[in-house]
Design goal:
The protein is α+β, with helices and mostly antiparallel strands. The protein has 18 helices and 22 strands. The chain has a five-stranded antiparallel sheet with strand order 2-1-5-4-3, sandwiched between helices. A five-stranded antiparallel sheet has the order 7-6-10-9-8, with helices on both faces. A five-stranded antiparallel sheet has the order 12-11-15-14-13, sandwiched between helices. Strand 6 and strand 7 form a beta hairpin. Helix 16 runs parallel beside helix 17 and helix 17 packs antiparallel against helix 18. The radius of gyration is 53 Å and the shape is elongated. The N and C termini lie far apart (133 Å). Keywords: Cell membrane, Kinase, Membrane, Phosphoprotein, Transferase, Transmembrane, Transmembrane helix. It is a multi-pass membrane protein. This is histidine kinase. Its EC number is 2.7.13.3. Pfam families: HATPase_c, HisKA, PAS_3, PAS_4, PAS_9.
Amino acid sequence: MKSFLEQNISQDSLITLFSQAPVAMSLLAGDDFIIQSANPQILEIWGKGTSVIGRSLFEILPEIIEQGFREILENVYRTGEIFKGNKWSVFLEKHGRYDEYFFNFIFAPVVNGDKKIIGISIVATEVTDQVLSERKLKESEYRFEHLIKKSDYPIAIYSTEDLYIEFANEKMLKTWGKNASVIGMKLEDALPELEGQPFIGLLKDIFKTGETYASKEASADLMVDGKLQTFYYDFSYKPLKNPAGEVYAILNMAVDITDLVMAKKEIQEREKKFRDLADSMPQFVWTCDNRGEITYMNKSWYRYTGSSENENQTSLVKRMMRPETIAKVDQTWEECVKTNTPFVMEYELEDPMQKGNYRWFLGRAVPNFSENGEVKQWTGTFTDIDEFKRLETQKDNFLGIASHELKTPLTSLKLYTQFIKNNLEKAGDPKNAGVARRMDYQIDLLTGLINELLDVTKIQKGQMQLNESVFDFDKMVDEVVEEQQMTSRHKLFVSRSGPIGDVFADRHRISQVVANLISNAIKYSPDADEVHISTGLHGEQAQFNVRDFGIGIPEDKLSKVFEQYYRINGSKDYTFSGLGLGLYISAEIIKRTGGEIFVSSVEGEGSDFCFRIPKNKN
């Protein structure tokens, strides 16, 4: 071969071949490593021109001396051993920049005919882009591996159709109740409890179909902490494919939603329990949204109306309601929705079994609030109170008739009593005259009770008439105070912030309210000696206040004092007479006059009752 080259190929041909080689090549001569030849490719690597020919390698590339290349080349020159570098890191200064580059290269000895080493040949290939790409790929793989290892979600990779566990992060191992020893095992061997469950079959099918499979709220029985337990997951099986489109592995990602599913089941069980309870109630139970659209009715309602769940129950209730009351019900409902306060109202609904006949119902609804304080729905009831309303009407009719019938004999009895009292006084019998006087006082009390019952009956039937006229409010108060003072041991103090003057109202009814408030102040302050009365103007309204220093009213009872038949209870040392109607009647009179009445009180310290009425009605 050597003879052939020497006889058939010229030195110029060899140099031409050398310069056109697709790899970087150079020939270094002598132990000074003089550059004998260098093709364009290696000159490009060095960042030099042809002027380097004839100069020492370490003269043109001094930066490689500290990187160990002198020792390497000297060893090759001395021993004749070839040196190979693979993806070797070299720092070079090229075009004024000092950067790292990577090369595959071979340093080989060059010998003469006497087999003496006369130089070194260099063959090099720059692989900087390849190495940097591999670095980026490794970094990317590291980041990906770190990401899935530290992921908050269970992740695993199964390879081949035998489903070998190639990878499983800490979350997945914890989900299985296993440790890292299962990695490399078949899935069915690592988790034998999966037998009879669909997961192994689903995974093997994906190797055939190549399609992703996902499921929500899937149950899985796993052996965790030494016992078989049921868990729930949202999970996916995603096929991983090679460039040929073949599935070589499956990526499994899962989210443990066991707590969520169990909470949902508990809510559903509670809801079912409460619905069963609601369905067993004789009352009609319902829910609705803020617009009043009914979202639920219990079975009692459907049995009563004969309607079905497919019908619009909101429209049905409106059709059953007495037409003239619909606007008032809607107005009350809108106010409750606006203020988030309970809805309570009595109204009539048509009897499904007797068209044209209406029954009274008590409608109640309370708002149900979400965690953020917003109303999410209303829960309500319809309670049939028709029989109660009939009995109440009968009671009112009886009280009205009985009270009216009692007034005639009482009037006669009072006349007879006064006649007896006057005659006894004339006969000089003061002792028996005093007895007659006390009889007359008791007749007045009985007459007052009868008048209260008559007033309540009128109020309930809407028959209380106000005979309004102009009168002097201050004078009316003085007259009532004078009458009350005549029969009371308490000192009644009256103060005025200014004259009120004329008021347009029912003088008799307003004086009835004033008298009732003063007599109550006297009655409920048995240990006090004073009652303070004050009047004045509050804007365009006449204001009247009565302040006592008696037993007071508990805070939780203040809202009840104006209710019908409510009586304020004192300690066991005191018993207070009365039917509990005076404040109710007073409140109704003030309300019908267009005013307002209210109370403030501290238990054990006394109470302050106040009403305001307009001076003039527009």
